[in-house]
User: Fold these one by one.
Assistant:
Number 1:
Amino acid sequence: MWDAGVLVKEIQGMRDDGHLSDALLRKAVRTIASSDERYDWVGVYLVGEGEELWLHNYIGEPTMHAKIPFGKGVCGRAAAMRRNFNIKDVSKEENYLACSPDTKSEIVILIRAGDQVFGEIDIDSDQQAAFDEDDEIALISVADKLAEQLAAERR
Ligand code: SME
């Protein structure tokens, strides 16, 4: 399991040096994508205008889902319901937006400060049931650090 604590410290260091959320979000996606071979597609969606998610940056194959309405797919449901998802087998999901035919499981972790949802980290894996509680804990710690900066910029 990769060490999310190192990434959280690096992101805080970037904040201390004056970097804004754009740089932090790109750093997080790059680092997470290279941290674990189970992570085949890693991206961040941000809440755009209205109830819609807009793809901010990603590593992996291009996706047709650059904009996702709240409620649509796993990502849209996470934003609408304000909760994380760990989908062990995407073929069993009725409300699902496929990015790649190779994807077997997916995890979505909200970037949030309390009730305010700024966006989410979305990871697809070609392995079934690729994500466990350790992934969730690691990704939540990174997402919470990213949310600190997004909250600070919107004050
Ligand atoms: N599978 C997601 C869509 C985003 S792609 O995985 C990049 C969903 O169902 O919302």
Number 2:
Amino acid sequence: MEWCLSMPKVELHAHLNGSIRDSTLLELTEGLIGKGVIDISEVEHIIKKYNRSVAEVFKLFDLIHILTTDHKTVTRITREVIEDFASENVVYLELRTTPKRNDSVGMTKRSYVEAVIKGLRSITSVDVDFVPRCEDSKSLFSSVPAIGHVRKRIYVRLLLSIDRRETAEAAMETVKLALEMRPFGVVGIDLSGNPNIGDWATYLPALKFAREQGLYVTLHCGEVPNSVEIKNMLDFRPQRIGHACHLEDEHWRQLKSSKIPVEICLTSNIRTLTIRSIDVHHFGELYKEKHPLVLCTDDSGVFSTSLTEEYKYAADSFGLGRREMFELSRNAIEYTFADSKVKEDLRNFFNSVAKKY
Ligand code: IMP
Ligand code: ZN
């Protein structure tokens, strides 16, 4: 565990509100007791439950959203989540979040994203690079010596999520917002939300537009069996997909020949019973076949995990040695949505510490 903790890591599939600290969730919940906003007895068992079904997970998200949707809390959670990832030596984080409107506190999708960016700016305990750099500026890892540097350093880039509950217009609004927010580190679009609702055709115009405008796209794909949608998603050729749990033979062939990188979230898939047991998880086969893969947490708060634990879980379950874990982590650089300068900096950094691993 110590070793996995110390290894530099790349996180590409983390939902902001799903990565909330337990202590913060509890504090926010307690703050609402007696205010008539939520009935604690109705949600307590879901908060405390370990193996939540997909439906229960989304119930929990509804609760989290009630608790977190004001600007101050969004800023706080962003800060804490980044501090937490940095503390376990995540050196590049792509954080995704669904821009939300909350009229009761004057929140628009734009002001929500601004609150996230405020959170990024407010971090003082860690060196954070979140704004694309100009040509001649120093890179995060080359600007100070790797050895003897005690402060953690982390690149953070943002993805804006389209929720499957949203309309085509709302999805387009999110894409336009992402384009506007590019100077503040927004690099792409994610499609997520309850996989049992919504229709692929609704999001397609927005996703196409995002791609035409040069945003990267990643899709939650195959969380539930849905043959037609999975095929449509693979035909779209996103730059990455998340999960890929319920693919059929024909989908596997398409995925493997397309070489679309897969964001693998082991604990999430097992806890939500999306995959029946770890020994039949598709990570094993894809890893053996050298398909592009990246280990991710999905929702470290909701699933009580960390990227360190995900690496340990993969190592224990599929017999990966230290060198293999290091290479898995290093390979993830190539699947980031970062620009070439950031990738180069990360490659150099991994090279500089490779001997230790
Ligand atoms: P947020 O976008 O920062 O509010 O993060 C939580 C949201 O991410 C949830 O409400 C879902 O829309 C999405 N999400 C988190 N985990 C999953 C998942 O496993 N599948 C699909 N969507 C998810
Ligand atoms: Zn996810």
